[in-house]
UniProtKB/TrEMBL annotation:
PANTHER family on file: REVERSE TRANSCRIPTASE DOMAIN-CONTAINING PROTEIN, REVERSE TRANSCRIPTASE-LIKE PROTEIN WITH RNA-DIRECTED DNA POLYMERASE DOMAIN
Keyword Transmembrane helix on entry: no
Protein name: Endonuclease-reverse transcriptase
Region (Disordered): 1-27
Keywords: Endonuclease, Hydrolase, Nuclease
GO MF entry, a single one: endonuclease activity
Domain spans labelled Reverse transcriptase: 1-108
């Protein structure tokens, strides 16, 4: 496959966009949305102001939200499996996890 030039902002079929190019951003941003939709159930996640949220994306970063460690691990396992289906992998060296426990839910 021939890489796109850094100033090319369109992707041809089978082309590989260099990391940090405008093309890699648009491919990442659009691709991750669909991959996450396929991998994560709408029922997964946590309620924030009455809305179930299971992921937050900004540029090429993604935050996965869950109610428990067990749910988070199950979500990550599904994401890893879905990435493999598309020939992608998560860079474990750039991946961080945080579990916050003991947060009280307030009722209004």
């Amino acid at each position: 496959m021939e890489p796109l030039s850094p100033d090319d902002d369109t992707a041809a079929d089978g082309a590989v966009a260099p990391q940090n190019s405008p093309s890699s951003f648009s491919l990442e941003a659009s691709g991750s949305k669909y991959l996450l939709r396929e991998a994560i159930s709408e029922k997964s996640g946590t309620l924030i102001n009455g809305v179930n949220i299971n992921n937050i994306r900004y540029a090429d970063d993604t935050v996965i939200l869950a109610e428990s460690e067990k749910q988070l691990q199950a979500m990550l396992d599904r994401i890893v499996d879905k990435c493999k289906e598309y020939g992608m992998e998560i860079n474990a060296k750039k991946t961080k996890t945080m579990y916050i426990e003991g947060i009280q839910k307030r009722s209004r």
